[in-house]
Amino acid sequence: MRELLQQLWNGLAIGSVYALVAVGYTLVFGVLKFINFAHSSILTFGAYVALYTMLSKVAPFPVALGLSMVLSGVFAMQTELRAFRPLREKGAPRLNLLITSIGVTLLVENAIVVFVSPDFHVFPKVLPGTPINLSGVVFPPVDLLLVAGSSILMLALSYFVNRTLTGLSIKAVALDRDAAALMGINVGRTISITFFIAGLMASMAGILVGMKFSVNPSLGGLFGLKSFAASVVGGIGSVPGAYLGGYLIGFLETLGAGYVSSNYKDAIAFVLLVLVLLFKPSGLLGKGTQEKV
Amino acid sequence: MLKIEDLNVYYGGIHALNSVSVDVNDGEIVTIIGANGAGKSTLLRTISGLVRARSGTVSFNGKDLGKMPPHEIVALGIAHAPEGRRVFSELTVAQNLRLGAFLRTDKEQMEQDLERVFRIFERLRERREQPAGTLSGGEQQMLCIGRALMSKPKLLLLDEPSMGLAPVLVQEIYKEIEEIRKYTTILLVEQNAYQALKTADRGYVLETGRIVMAAPCSELIRDPVIKKAYLGK
Q: What is the topology classification, in CATH, of domain A2-116+133-279?
């Protein structure tokens, strides 16, 4: 029982990471209808910004966290403005956007290797060191921060998307870009805002994963891919779906590692992806898409 | 108020609009009739900035719309109820109408305009919390027009409001258009030439991208060529 509770907690913590990142894939897919593989590099970028802010000791952790989130949001926005928007304006097919996004990821990873450092970095200790122990179940401080931080961000995002006019305009752009423009919505700006939010959330995930494990140039790679799997499992385009997919993969992965074999840990997300695509291709909470004429 | 001069629009290699000139004066209903594929929707989409012209000018109260993005054109006071309704199907009727007033900040006036839309289209009131995708075709058309009205337009562009609707609903929509003309100038594009000519003040006939005739509707409706080609008589 104690072991199960511990595994569930671990699943919740790592699931929070996947959920935070998955929501970015889903938001961007919503407005642009392509999978932005550059999203995983935002996670890495965010971790490095926070790491170097902390290492240079110019600001306390909360400031480093905030700074990294804002800069990551701006960085995500810039990838869209400089890489994707020119392609869209030239009427390039979506496949070109996809390939470009993979290119952006390679560029970011290698730029970090060349200009920053190829090494693994341990994040400076910023949280009180002793894990909380509740009758045998261990709650490391970084996990608590992860679960709390992601919950707050997710609630804030839900409020923003469902209760504000800007959130409504993101939905409108996702549903019908031309009709949204005819409402007076600045479509370009709305897309920028969407990338900003996606970047902001990915940065939080990147920093906390960096604190939990270590910071390295390919940090975003596997987390990004699993989160992408999570967004598809949940139903790409659906925000609650991304959360569901993220937590589901988090739980199954830790339970699988705990009770089956940790050798298969990284495969579980993708097995789930294949199963969902076989039996419910639109994802658990996704709506079947009809091609519009 | 709207002046279109010598407009040329291409879709790939197709010459969709060929030196089209159209004027709309304040307070009028002007209609453009023509067969499917004549270029009617392209003309409205060019006015709204969704499609760019290769040459020619579109100006609204003296302002050149040629290089403006769609949202700035909406801000000038042009609302477009597009072909095929294009309501946001997963959003509620109320949210669709709210988006219609996206650029407005005058809360009280917006409430009054919302009330006016519900007065014109009573059926939308009962369905305000329903997703737009669950409405019937006629109701979606009402929502599409109501949504455009929510921007408080000086000029309303209506693209085929009768498309795909049962005759009784077409009658109803046109009855409401008579009501709407009290508040705004209208440029109406229609395949249903009879309804359009009965409602509008002046009409243009568009054939494969060219204006072939322009006259008051009372004349067009009696013109033997029009009767034969568009009114089926």
A: ABC transporter involved in vitamin B12 uptake, BtuC (1.10.3470)
Q: Is B11 on the interface with A (CB under 8 A)?
A: no
Three-state DSSP at B167 gives helix
pLDDT digits (tens, 9 = 90+) for B93-105: 999 999 999 999 9
Domain ranges of chain A: 2-116+133-279
Indicate the SS3 state at residue B57: strand
Shortest CB distance from A183 goes to which of B49, B50, B102?
B102
With beta carbons less than 8 A apart as the criterion, state whether B90 and B154 touch: no
In sequence order, what are the residues at sequence separation of 6 or more whose Cβ sits closer than 8 angstroms to the Cβ of residue A208? A17, A142, A145, A146, A149
- Altogether, the residues listed in chain A come to a count of 293
**Residue among B140, B82, B152, B81 nearest B116 (CA):** B152
Q: What angle do CA A81, A84, A86 make, to 5 degrees?
A: 75
Q: Side by side, which strands form the sheet with B29-33? A: B78-81, B155-159, B185-190, B29-33, B202-207, B210-216
Tokens of A112: 């970090």
pLDDT tens for each residue of B23-81: 999 999 999 999 988 999 999 999 999 999 999 999 999 999 999 999 999 999 999 99
Q: Per the CB < 8 Å rule, is B70 touching A181?
A: yes
Residues of A in contact with B49 (CB under 8 A): 181
Classified by CATH at the fold level, domain B2-230 comes out as Rossmann fold (3.40.50)
ipTM of the complex: 0.95
Task: Quote the CA–CA distance of B222 and A164 in Å, as a whole number.
Answer: 53
The rounded distance, in Å, linking the Cα atoms of A179 and B86 is: 6
Alpha-carbon span A108 to A116, nearest angstrom: 11
Would you list the domain boundaries of chain B? Answer: 2-230
| Distance separating alpha carbons of residues A47 and A238, to the nearest angstrom | 26
List the single residue in B87, B102, B151 with the smallest CB-CB distance to A169: B102
Partner-chain contact A181 B71, CB within 8 Å? yes
- Residues 6 or more apart from A162 whose CB is under 8 A from it? none
Q: Which residues of A touch B103 (CB under 8 A)?
A: 184
Cross-chain Cβ contact A182/B99 below 8 Å: no
- Say how many residues make up chain B: 233
The burial of A70, by beta-carbon neighbours within 10 Å (0-12 exposed, 13-18 middle, 19 or more buried), is given as middle
Single-letter code of the amino acid located at A95: L
